[in-house]
Amino acid sequence: MHTSTNVFKRQFILTCKQAAPLASRSLDESLTLHEQLLLKWHLLICQSCTTYFGQIKLIRKIIRDKRVSTMGLSDEARKRIAQVLSDSEAAITLNNSNQ
Ligand SMILES: [Zn+2]
């Protein structure tokens, strides 16, 4: 019983140290279902990480809002521009290698 409790803890309960990077990654990329569950579970039981997560979410939102209002562009538009830029970089590399 004791052993199985330890296994349960190891697999399903994150430490705050493990939860924090997951929380910040979840704002930039999508986590696996397993990671999402681990993070949600940890946030349910941990007040300090819930507060931390709320704060980093707020900071991201402020940064994003500020950038959008500065550039007047949506996320989607900026992604398209980044795509075009990286395509033209690739084209330049190709042209240079032909010379
Ligand atoms: Zn925590």
Uncertain stretches of 5 or more adjacent residues: none
Sheet of most strands:
none
Mean pLDDT: 78
Distinct small molecules: zinc ion
- Gap from first CA to last CA: 70 Å
Derived from helix and strand composition plus strand pairing, the structural class reads mainly alpha
> What proportion of the residues is helical, as a percent range?
over 70%
Query: How are helices and strands ordered from N to C?
Result: HHHHH
* CA radius of gyration: 21 Å
Number of strands: 0
Q: Categorize the overall geometry.
A: elongated
Strand content: under 5%
Tell me the domain tally: 1
Tally of alpha and pi helices: 5
Commentary on this structure:
By secondary structure, the protein is mainly alpha-helical. It has one domain (2-73). The protein is 87% helix and 0% strand. The chain is built from five helices and no strands. Helix 2 packs across helix 3 (33-45) and helix 3 crosses helix 4 (47-71). The protein is elongated and about 55 Å long. The N and C termini lie far apart (70 Å). The mean pLDDT is 78. Bound molecules: zinc ion.
Features:
99 residues, mainly alpha, 5 helices, 87% helix
